[in-house]
# Entry
Amino acid sequence: MNLHQKIGKTDDGNWHQSVWKVVSEIPSGHVLTYGEVARLAGIPSAARRVSQVLRRAPRSMGLPWHRVINAQGRISFPEDSSGWQRQKDMLEVEGLVFLNGKVDLERYGYRGAVDRLLWGE
DNA sequence: GGGCTGACCTACT
DNA sequence: CAGTAGGCCAGCC
# Structure
């Protein structure tokens, strides 16, 4: 059994913690998609379960759950829900700009951050 | 055990 | 850009 198989199949116990760690290290003013969080946590196919973990995370740990959005740059709550409103507010406080209900992933996302490191603003 | 459900994703029309 | 289809997998009846 190689390392990838081991991580993918049997390392469940630590996975919650990996996700929490990844999310907790997203800098203010930036966002990651669920898929990116899953990849960085070591399990690419688990994008869907990242949301479950976030929902179940204890409030006491102050996880910046609002910095995780979907791959379209949109908030994954119904637009009329209070959760959607809360998440949008918190992101706007951190400086993100919403256009037609979406943020610019090229600017605030993982790739955007890397590009700016390489190319400057 | 079996079917449904999701704060999802990618690829394709 | 919008809508669909298939894949994914832990949790909850």
